[in-house]
Amino acid sequence: MTSNLRIRKADDMHIHLRQGELLAKVLPHTASQCARALVMPNTTPPIVTADDLNNYRNSIQKLLKTEDAFVPLMTFRVMPTTTPAMVKDHKRAGATAGKLYPEGVTTNSEGGVKDLQTLYPVYKAMEEEGLVLCLHGEVPGVFSLDRETAFLETLRTLAKDFPKLKIVLEHATTADAIDTVLKLSANVAATLTAHHLRITLDDVIGDKLNPHVFCKPIAKRPADRDALLKAATSGNPKFFLGSDSAPHPVESKECACGAAGVYTAPVLLPVLAETFESAGHLDKLESFTSRFGAEFYRLPLNEQYIELHRESWTVENQYGGVVPFMAGHRFAWKLSSASSSSKANKTKQTAKSSA
Amino acid sequence: MTSNLRIRKADDMHIHLRQGELLAKVLPHTASQCARALVMPNTTPPIVTADDLNNYRNSIQKLLKTEDAFVPLMTFRVMPTTTPAMVKDHKRAGATAGKLYPEGVTTNSEGGVKDLQTLYPVYKAMEEEGLVLCLHGEVPGVFSLDRETAFLETLRTLAKDFPKLKIVLEHATTADAIDTVLKLSANVAATLTAHHLRITLDDVIGDKLNPHVFCKPIAKRPADRDALLKAATSGNPKFFLGSDSAPHPVESKECACGAAGVYTAPVLLPVLAETFESAGHLDKLESFTSRFGAEFYRLPLNEQYIELHRESWTVENQYGGVVPFMAGHRFAWKLSSASSSSKANKTKQTAKSSA
């Protein structure tokens, strides 16, 4: 059994170093283990111009100690406003790659690209300049577990239309992505994170909720993780490290939010009324809430009535220290204050005597 | 458009009322909208004996106001220790149903049933006594999204072996469950929650992490929600309300834990070394971390080296206010303090000059 391991320092081909105090805190961890790292440009504001890129590189280098031999590989954000001329500026500024985030797909992806087709002149310029196109490969709006798979058609199209452009599918998380990258030319590769080689969706939601392994793309099924691990350990050069290490202050991550359960009681009928109405089946509501259960349990139908009326109201954020389902939601149906309760006392009496 | 709705009060056939102060807080919400509710027995300690059941009913009834006409329908927990004699005691105490939680499947399910077959005498007694068997239908240990589907074979078996036993699959969340319940006899039904008719997994993890809709079983795909909604609104009496309303104090739910990203940098190489070694491919580590990326990016291989050695150590819970990946984990590989850096200054020089 190997007891010592001597290897080259890593090149982390996908990292978030952030800015300011957080940058100063996280940089030493990377600088001590990596020789280089491809620094993502989704800062606030993002790295859009060559000046942004130079300034960001300077702010990183200022924090490096003399003994550090760490080289930040700089990227710019491919935005809807990016032009071929800007691509050339970035090249001159020493950019390594451009990173494209579909609009709204992850942290700080606001203002991202909505239609990837519109940027063909930009990809062309990147191809000509030898700049790598790094893709956050998810389609926003698609069901979370399918977002990456839905993106693969776009990847295939870009690979076909720009055969000389180097493209990296960042932080691949699915067996589908691995298969696709394997089938495409050698100009298409994928980074794999460390955490996606370890976790599945179960680590996020399978037991208690664990915000610390919540990320985009979300971890998938065990078979997907197995495919990533197989790719990572296959020796195929299409797959390499991009850690996607992404620090968030503990305040925005940490919580004891593990307990499982949704508190619907305060809004139960308004929710159901709205839901059934939206489905065009308000006439089925009462059977669902007040008949079928009784019949199944061989109980007489209850003889009490409750009223809702159409009035817009907003659910409180808490009831007695508990956050209700749909807190802050504006409902169209409201419980009427006066609900009739015929035979109320009689029913209660029956209940007590049955104990 | 209907502007007023007058319906019977609900029978909520699956509710968590908790105990003590929380019970006092949540009960009015249910009592004001429901005539009856089937009260779940996974309290702390659980409702196991007829005395437990009577005491719990009393504690609920003591909190009801004179004008309330709410009847709690009581349940007992079917435990590995439950006997046919205890079933008869529960019947005498006025129990409506017995609730079975597979071990470890949800909140307060510790000490649950590991082998459902061992309880056949109990189901037989329940069948004879006319007590309903309520099932939390998930198989623990299976991948989260498949847990309910994996349970359906057990449901079919129980329905076959106890044709006169009334069985409720609680809080169904999948199209598979709906299909199965539809195919089984009229003695098998399913409760549906309000929230599962509204949300999918995307509401939990699709954007920011939302602990307030995190529950067991976890919400599934849009097609599953559609199947639940179709069942709920179909008019088929096999499907009725069980809200599964489950209050947790805000402290155990609330947080700003939405930010997406995993902070791997402090432990990057120890994680990868462990991961590759476990996979039997430690020899592939360096290519993955330090070669393929460079080659793809057409960079010279870096000339710096880092060392890890086999030493057990535990990852800190925070680094500079950020929680790292695998915080608290005990690793077998540790970074050696002295890492060699040949050509360090030269590399840095090159980096700066390229800017």
In the CATH hierarchy, what is the superfamily of the largest domain in chain A? Answer: Metal-dependent hydrolases
User: Order of strands across the widest beta sheet of chain A?
Assistant: 2-3-4-5-6-7-8-9
- CA distance, first residue to last residue of chain A: 67 Å
Q: Find the biggest chain interface.
A: A-B, 165 and 167 residues
Q: What series of H and E elements makes up the topology of chain A? A: EEHEHEHEHEHEHEHHEHHEEH
Over all CA atoms, what is the radius of gyration of chain A?
Answer: 27 Å
Tell me the quaternary state.
homodimer
Largest sheet report of chain A: 8 strands, parallel
Give the percentage of residues in beta strands of chain A. 15-25%
Give a written overview of the molecule:
- Two copies of one chain form a homodimer.
- With 355 residues, the first copy, chain A, is of the alpha/beta class.
- Chain A folds into two domains: 10-252, Alpha-Beta Barrel (TIM Barrel), CATH 3.20.20; 265-354, no CATH class.
- Chain A is 34% helix and 17% strand.
- The first copy, chain A, has eleven helices and eleven strands.
- Chain A has helices at 20-33, 50-63, 84-92, 120-129, 147-161, 175-183, 201-206, 222-232, 268-278, 285-296, 344-354, and strands at 4-8, 10-15, 34-39, 71-78, 97-100, 132-135, 167-169, 188-192, 239-241, 305-314, 330-335.
- In chain A, α6 links the parallel β7 and β8.
- In chain A, α3 (84-92) packs parallel to α4.
- The termini of chain A are far apart.
- At the A-B interface, β1, β2, α1, β3 and α2 of A face β1, β2, α1, β3 and α2 of B.
